[in-house]
From TrEMBL:
<dbReference type="InterPro" id="IPR015797">
    <property type="entry name" value="NUDIX_hydrolase-like_dom_sf"/>
</dbReference>
<protein>
    <submittedName>
        <fullName>DUF4916 domain-containing protein</fullName>
    </submittedName>
</protein>
<dbReference type="Pfam" id="PF16262">
    <property type="entry name" value="DUF4916"/>
</dbReference>
<dbReference type="InterPro" id="IPR032582">
    <property type="entry name" value="DUF4916"/>
</dbReference>
């Protein structure tokens, strides 16, 4: 990887990044977009993953000295376009992705990532770009099956939705 979405010149050269990935966990943010209308829907991007195409959260690496909320906004704009607005950003959970299967609940063979995961109300017309080949809204009771998600993120989405249902 030579560039992290939207980072431009602030990112690390590919060789140096590979050495870092081999030794250090990477701080990331993920976002589960919530629909701005009255219907309970969540938004997911469809993208390539190491295991093949799958539905995923919006997100990626945090830059040095970048506030987490700014990283979420940067990844949202780079992945779904500047016409999508984000409000009511709220922390939901932290998910750890390990390079080796079986160490934890989630696996990403490319890197050990620690993802601070948020929800946020999104309005506007998404225009998938970057890693996203498409975007779709899903009714919260009609999510794709777990095997259609990348990185096991179906379980992350269901965990977050379970937090909502347990709070009222």
């Amino acid at each position: 990887m030579t560039d992290i979405i939207g980072a431009g010149e602030r990112w690390i050269p590919a060789g140096e990044y590979a050495r870092i990935l081999a030794r250090v966990p990477i701080a990331c943010v993920d976002l589960l977009p919530l629909s701005a209308d009255d219907r309970p829907r969540v938004g997911l991007i469809h993208r390539d993953t190491p295991a093949g195409p799958g539905w995923c959260l919006v997100g990626g690496a945090v830059l040095r000295d970048e506030p987490l909320a700014a990283a979420v906004t940067r990844h949202l704009a780079a992945t779904l376009g500047g016409a999508v607005t984000l409000t009511a950003l709220a922390y939901a959970t932290t998910v750890e992705y390990f390079t080796q299967p079986g160490i934890g609940d989630f696996h990403d063979p490319r890197k050990h990532a620690i993802a601070h995961t948020y929800t946020g109300v999104c309005a506007g017309t998404p225009e998938p770009a970057g890693e996203a080949d498409r975007f779709a809204w899903f009714e919260t009771d009609r999510l794709p099956p777990d095997e259609e998600f990348g990185f096991g993120q179906g379980r992350v989405v269901r965990r977050i939705l379970g937090q909502f249902s347990s709070h009222g």
